[in-house]
Amino acid sequence: MVKGGKWFSEKGTDRSSGSKLFSVSGDCEKPGVYELSWGIKVSELLKLVGAKNTKAVQIGGASGVCIPKDQFDRTLAYEDVTTGGSVMIFNESRNMVHVLKNLMEFFVDESCGQCTPCRIGNVKLLEGVEMIEKGSYTFVHINKLKNLGRTMQVASKCGLGQSSPNPFLSILENFKDEIFNNGKGELNGR
Length: 190
Description:
The protein has about 190 residues and is an alpha+beta fold.
C-alpha cells in the first residue's frame, strides 16, 4: 500500500498482476506463508520451500487440482493454475490413493447435506476410491463416477459441492498409472 497500485501492478503477469499469499504445507523443509508474485512456476515455489522428490502438488487446497511432476513448469496465475493460495506438497513416499481417500473423506464430512449432488455425490466418489483401494472396480464404474463428478460441478448449490470433485477428477487423470496399475483392478468393461 505504501508503494502504490502502479508498483504493485508491475509485479506478476499481464493478466495476474501483483503478488499473492501462498500457504505452503506438506513434504517440504520450509512450510509457511509466502508472499510471491503471480506467475511463479510451481518448480520455483518447490525450490524456494525446499521440497525434494516431489510427486504431486495439490493447488487450491482440498478442493483444488492435483498436478504431477511433469506439470511443475506451469505457473500459478489466473491464466494457468489459479489458486486461493493453498499449496500442499506430496513427495514420492505418498500413495495417491490414500491422498485421494483423505480428501474425499473430508468432503463427505463437510457437506451440509442440503443438496443431493453434494450429499450423495461425495459419498459415491468416496465409495469409488475405496473400491480402487480394494481393487474391486471396473473402468465402466470409474467413468460413471467421473461423469458424476462433472455433474456435481454444475449442479451443486454451493462452492463446496461444485469444487469437491476436483481432486477426484485430477488425481484419477494425472496419476492413473499409479492408481490403476496396482494389479488388482477388474479390467472388464474397459
